[in-house]
UniProtKB/TrEMBL annotation:
It comes from the Bacteria. It comes from Mesonia hippocampi. This is UDP-glucose 4-epimerase. It catalyses: UDP-alpha-D-glucose = UDP-alpha-D-galactose. One of its GO terms (biological process) is galactose metabolic process. Its cofactor is NAD(+). Homodimer. One of its GO terms (cellular component) is cytosol. InterPro entries: NAD(P)-bd_dom, NAD(P)-bd_dom_sf, UDP_G4E. Keywords: Carbohydrate metabolism, Isomerase, NAD. Residues 5-324 form the NAD(P)-binding domain. Pathway: Carbohydrate metabolism; galactose metabolism. GO terms for molecular function: UDP-glucose 4-epimerase activity. It holds the Pfam family GDP_Man_Dehyd.
Amino acid sequence: MKTILVTGGLGYIGSHTVVELIQSNYKVIIIDDLSNTNISVLDSIHKITGMLPTFYPYDLKNEALVSKVFNQHCFDGVIHFAAYKSVGKSQKEPLHYYKNNLYGLINLLQEMERNTLTNFIFSSSCTVYGQADKMPIDENTPLKKPESTYGKTKQMGEEIIEDFVKAYTKKATILRYFNPIGSHPSGLIGELPNGAPDNLIPYVAQVASGIRDYLSIFGKNYPTPDGTAIRDYIYVKDLAEAHVSSLNNLLNNTQKQGLDIYNLGTGKGHSVLEIVKTFEKVNLLKIPYKIEGKRPGDITIAYANANKAKNELNWQTKTTIEEALISVWNWQKTLKEKEKL
Ligand code: WQD
């Protein structure tokens, strides 16, 4: 049984990926500093899979602790999720973001090199494209300087990995997520926003459950059919499955060295208003909203050309936006029940 280290494995996308890895017969070791999640997620992973992964509540910036984990296990691969991801907070605390997201990555890669390990998968984001000139966005689309420090840490992280692969003859895969949404079909894991959500979908869910009075729709005069911005919303379990496909591809690929980059999206764009109306329709409820000004740094439109992942990883999304938005409301109702306990 191959052993995989998953950093940030108790986070939103990390926990869904850990479940898929275990159910694909991998042994999983988790490092997570719990800065943006809850230890109860470990128990939920246990309930879903019947397996309790070994867990270390460590900060990747702590070299001694990370070394200790690498001394105790022999990893066949590493999937790196652990990073701060709030676009808004990154603008207020850039140095905090650079230190955490970049030094954490560098320390992890140094440990891999110290242990002559290869097979590295990096959680990146379509934010590295900025506002791309043409749609759909493929992996050859020129990158633009991201507006946010969060986005810059993703772009710089990709460059660090490119040098790591070349200098130390490693194999790595960069996965550029579009907009992850939804929760696991079991209803036991999902997004756990810290305070008021930055992102559209968890905010809509909180309006639906009465935690927020209304949704602010940031901008209604974009050059789009209904004037609101368009994104590619990808169901989190489909996204998690792409990580297993990427890992299988790395482990089966006997080539000694190289870097691959894949866009992970549905290939379809939906506007903010379309999302609101679809959420209302499939969940039989109303979402009050107010039109407000554009959010600084937001782009008009982004949706993926995901053919490269389909052709090379034998992976594509299977879940409709309707199904994903039903899972969003199911999870929000679960959170509400938990609060009553
Ligand atoms: C989507 C659309 C908003 C909230 C960012 C990161 C990306 C990834 C996902 C981490 C935009 C509008 C939002 C609200 C709104 N991050 N909106 N009212 O900005 O596309 O992507 O989050 O995994 O890397 O860049 O996602 O959900 O914040 O916004 O109108 O209350 O919804 O203006 O048009 P975004 P988002």
